[in-house]
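Worked example 2:
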Amino acid sequence: MDYPLSSRLKLQTGMQYIEQHAINDGGNANQTLTYVTKGNVARAFGGRLGVAGKSWTITANYNRITKEGRYLMPREWGRDPFFTFMSRERNEGLGDVHAMNTLLSKKIGQSGLVVEGGYGHYYLPDAKNTQLNKYGMPSYWQTNLDVRYLFKRTLQVLELQFLYVYKGKLGETYSNDKFVINKVDMSLYNLILNFHF
């Protein structure tokens, strides 16, 4: 919700609550083949506090997934619905999570250029705890830089995007590369041409 602070500023607040319950056998009678185990319950809640001007927004965000079960959402569906979501970050397959971040967005005049940045900490269960950490992901910190250019006139269906992501290790990796490679201590660069229809 937005609350005017002045003619140029507004306060942004938000709260969310998500609850998941497995239906029947969770997708397969053979529990070793099921997507979600029978009886799984996951709960998540979060909050947001921010300030927005005419062309910029800054928010502080928090999300908690309780330790009752793993939050599950097929990764191909895209982004998690949490306030703490950052591109190339997922809380899917996890329980007992504390996530917090700060996000900043700035439109550069009428140029069509939008710059977004973020920094967050994601405290996860131990990477060896498969009951609450499906993919063996250690706790991490992440920073993003997302620059987008929205084309005008005839090309207004196109958007050019540069995304830089760095994930740094916070949790124990047991000197085992399977908890590091493509998970933490890594940079990711994307140059993307989006077509909006």
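Strands lie at 2-4, 10-21, 41-52, 56-65, 97-108, 113-123, 140-150, 158-169, 186-195. The two ends are 29 Å apart (CA to CA).
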